[in-house]
């Protein structure tokens, strides 16, 4: 009787410690990146990689249902290489990325999928320069160092002409076309 109670206690402590260790690693927040203002231009800048596998960093345009746009691989990108995303973003609009392991282990992770959140580490302490780290081995097998692909997402304000300036340009065009006749 006493032996079974001791074993039950030992097993209970082991199960409790194992479950709490895993709970510390699971992400509790969406790693999504959101535009801090309207008319935001977004530039993705490669920082570094320390990975054995080869992976592709891809931008997923949440406004389109097309396939992701590949920016570069972690083996071909060079430090400070940049890529300007092809459109402007509204305040609060989500900017999602996907990382696909193409040589080594085959897998893919998306910031937009809750089951993949553990693969991304996001530092948005500077909302204009968000740092993203990627773990290329699916949780819980990976080392969770998030250094297999590291990139920065930089936001800047696009120059948007004031409505009055657009009206003046249109009026100038009308006057110029009238003189040519």
Q: Can you put this structure into words, describing what you see?
A:
By secondary structure, this protein is of the alpha+beta class. It has one domain: Calcium-mediated lectin (Jelly Rolls), CATH 2.60.120. Helices cover 23% and strands 33% of the residues. The chain is built from 2 helices and 10 strands. The strands form 2 sheets. Strands 1, 3, 4, 6 and 7 form a 5-stranded antiparallel β-sheet that branches. A hairpin with an 8-residue loop joins strand 3 (54-60) and strand 4 (69-73). The chain is globular. The protein starts with a helix and ends with a helix. Residues 4-26 have low confidence and may be disordered.
Helix and strand topology:
Blueprint: H1 2-25, E1 33-34, E2 40-48, E3 54-60, E4 69-73, E5 82-84, E6 94-103, E7 107-110, E8 120-123, E9 129-134, E10 149-157, H2 163-180
């Amino acid at each position: 009787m006493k032996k079974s109670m001791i074993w039950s206690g030992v097993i209970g402590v082991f199960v409790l410690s194992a479950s709490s260790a895993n709970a510390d690693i699971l992400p509790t927040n969406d790693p999504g990146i959101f535009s801090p203002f309207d008319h935001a231009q977004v530039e993705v800048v490669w920082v570094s990689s320390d990975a054995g596998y080869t992976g592709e960093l891809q931008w997923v345009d949440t406004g389109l249902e097309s396939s992701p746009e590949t920016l570069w691989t972690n083996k071909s990108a060079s430090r400070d290489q940049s890529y300007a995303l092809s459109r402007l973003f509204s305040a609060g609009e989500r900017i999602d990325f996907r990382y696909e392991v193409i040589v080594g282990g085959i897998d893919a992770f998306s910031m937009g999928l809750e089951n993949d959140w553990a693969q991304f580490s996001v530092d948005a302490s500077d909302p204009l320069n968000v740092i993203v780290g990627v773990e290329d081995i699916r949780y819980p097998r990976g080392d969770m160092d998030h250094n297999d692909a590291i990139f920065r997402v930089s936001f800047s304000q696009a120059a948007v002409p004031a409505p009055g300036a657009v009206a003046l340009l249109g009026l100038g065009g009308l006057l110029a076309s009238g003189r040519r006749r």
